Amino acid sequence: MSETHDHSNEHDHATHTHDGKPIQEDPLPSLEAQILEASVRELLIEKGVISADDVRRAIDQVESRTPALGAKIVARAWDDSEFKALLMSDSDEALMAFGVDMRPTELCVVENTDEVHNMVVCTLCSCYPRPVLGVPPAWYKRRDYRSRAVREPRAVLQEFGTQIPDQKQVRVHDSNADLRYLVLPQRPAGTEGWDQEKLARLVTRDSMIGVSDALAASDIGG
């Protein structure tokens, strides 16, 4: 395993001040940025570096990825102790079972427990396990989330409606170009005997980033 760049918050019991505003989505890119992107893309197509079909296929591939795959991985880990052990120790091999190969990027899976709650951020940009979770939400890329998640994680979690008991430690993990994180949320109570398909319905994108818990068993019908 390479160095994890774990920014575990050692002072998460301290009182922090903040503006109290929930994380908001960023506005669309400026008109200048959109014009620049279109100009560069058209120039690359004109020079034969890429084709319009290449661009279309790349967009389709990115947009086809959703957190549903991550939910299936989490559900299997909840249901299959051997797979969970493999996922925690050798995520590359575990992901192969789902047809995913993230190499050379490393995926580190961190587990929420009764003692520890994990939360993921990328303080430099928006590094994110896209092959497993798809496109990151807009708030994940915002500067206020990227900075405040490290400084005052409990305050940020509260804005997502997630209350962490004082006795539970909050660990903030900083993703980078070489290393991405996936949170394995705690399995909700009352789900004994559930199959993996039903368990996956409890797993949300936000729970795999760590800003929320998995849904409760009572939150889904059937």
List the helices and strands and how they pair.
Layout (H helix, E strand, L loop, with lengths): L5 E3 L22 H16 L5 H13 L3 H12 L1 H9 L1 H6 L9 E6 L4 E6 L8 H4 L9 H9 L1 H7 L9 E6 L4 E6 L11 H5 L4 H5 L13
Parallel strand pairs: 2-5, 3-4
Antiparallel strand pairs: 1-4
Helix pairs in contact: 3-4, 7-8
Fold and architecture overview:
The chain is α/β, with parallel strands linked by helices and 222 residues long. It folds into two domains: 29-64, no CATH class; 66-219, Nitrile hydratase alpha /Thiocyanate hydrolase gamma (Nitrile Hydratase, Chain A). It contains ten helices and five strands. It has helices at 31-46, 52-64, 68-79, 81-89, 91-96, 130-133, 143-151, 153-159, 196-200, 205-209, and strands at residues 6-8, 106-111, 116-121, 169-174, 179-184. The strands form two sheets. A three-stranded mixed β-sheet has the order 1-4-3, covered by helices on one side. It has a two-stranded parallel sheet with strand order 2-5. Helix 3 (68-79) crosses helix 4 and helix 7 (143-151) crosses helix 8. The longest helix has 16 residues, at 31-46. The N and C termini lie far apart (41 Å). The model is unreliable at 1-22 (pLDDT under 50).
